[in-house]
What we know:
Number of helices: 5
Strand order of the largest sheet: 2-4-5-7-6
Helix content: 40-55%
Shape: elongated
Order of helices and strands: HEHHEEHEEHEE
Largest sheet: 5 strands, mixed
Amino acid sequence: GSLDSEAEALFGFIQGAAVSMRNLLGGLRTYAQTVGSQSHFRLCDGNSLVAAALAIAGAAIEQSGAVVSHDALPELYCEPAQMGYTFSSLIDNAIKFRGESKPEIHIFATVEEDRVVYAFRDNGIGIDPRHRESIFGVFKRVHNDAYPGAGVGLAIAKKIIEGHGGRIWVESALGKGATFILALPKSND
């Protein structure tokens, strides 16, 4: 038979909850696979890591018309699959949290005495300064259901960067884009 409007609304709610649960479980699986995998650190070309990340994010880049540029990037001592995941997550987030204009992402780096600092700058919607820390928590979503995802990408990125002996943070203001900064040890010494 047919459903009355109340039953239809309840089934819609159940379906939405099931989709949310599937996203959360997928996020947990990605977290466990990426952070829990065995690490094989080696010296990696930064330009090659970005090229791999761009390939992973290729569909989102093409669909959004995003322009991704980067300077010549230094080598990193890292686990390449984990760093590739981090780079692609930052690119994907810059595309996902875009404003009205076409997404523009620029990646640059500096080499300091004992560390390499990578930065991912975008022209997106920005982040309220009061959420600078909370966005790195597992399942922490500032925009709730306004944007797709499980809320684990930045948590995984933070865990990866910390597992590499580094630090990640964001500099941003609402409506002014965001710059995610990764400071990593220069070598395994």
